[in-house]
Amino acid sequence: AIALFIAGLGGAAVWVPAPGIGASLVGPERGGLAFGLVGSGIGMGIVVAGPLTNAVREVTNDDGAWRPVYGIQAGVAAVVLVALLLVLRAGPKTSDGTTKVSINVIKSVPGWQLLITAFAVFGVAYSLYFYFLVAQLRETGWSPSASSWIFTLVGLASVCGGLIFCRLSDRYPRPKVMAAGYVLLAAAPILTLVGSTVSVSTAAIAFGLCVSGTPTTMGAMLADHLSGRALGAGFGTLTLAFGIAQLAGPPFAGIVGEATGSFALPFLLASAIAGVGVLVSVILGRSVRVVVV
Fold it and tell me: How many CA atoms within 13 Å lie on the side-chain side of 40?
């Protein structure tokens, strides 16, 4: 539990400021592209994790091996940390000589309440589905290696999702692009429950596209109105809502899974909640003026 908590803190410390740094370098007209490129890195990590896990388990002849995988990942993280320390430099300070930005800066973004609601909805639906995807596949007869390859497919799609959605959000109204992401999120659990190779693969692609594309679009909306450290603070507020919302999904899905031997009900609930995300996106689009370049 402590290790997972530390991993969560570390992930947040990377994910929250990184898109803002990228967006601040290119300006609002390319904010979506910057968020998409940064977000695609997560997908690349997922792509590597699946084959790496399978390779380690084949070498050790242990389908449940995980410690060597974690060790390799820790080594990669250490190398990246050293590289960052060598390359990165402190950014400029604000005009008053400080570097502090209030988290309330997000209130300057039109429709900020709806944006936070949308990300919270995304967090609940995400946690009901993604955390139990492999468990559901295993319950329905999928082998560990096949389940890992589906996980890899999610990663491949998420690499593309960030790039695709960033281009779409720079070209079309961002709330409409958000709504499209929620449609994909709603479809993924239902397709998974169908259980065929084609439907599960399609679900993995749909989920991968939305899991990187939807946050990318939300971040680009922030970049329309915020920049620099203010953008990082605003995105941090969204991420906080996302993280808190994720606390609701796993306990419910776990209890239902233990009682029924299936995650069908949590998956259907995830689809329904994603439908709420579509509605929130539509309302957001009607209530604010969206910058489209």
Answer: 16
Dist. CA 183–CA 34, nearest whole Å: 23
User: Cα(first)–Cα(last) distance of the chain, in Å?
Assistant: 45
Q: Which two tokens stand for residue 120?
A: 């919270």
The per-residue pLDDT for range 84-119, each reduced to its tens digit, is 788 766 555 544 444 566 767 888 888 899 999 999
Of 151, 166, 179, 134, nearest to 274 by C-alpha is: 179
Nearest CA to 108 among 225, 231, 228? 225
For the record, the structure tokens of 56 come out as 């380690």
pLDDT tens digits, one per residue of 202-218: 999 999 999 888 988 88
How far is the C-alpha of 162 from the C-alpha of 14, rounded, in Å?
Answer: 17
Q: How far is CA 65 from the centre of its chain?
A: 26
Nearest 5 degrees, angle CA 121-CA 150-CA 5? 50
The whole-angstrom distance between residue 11's C-alpha and the CA centroid of its chain comes to: 11
What the block records as the tokens of 101 is 């930005």
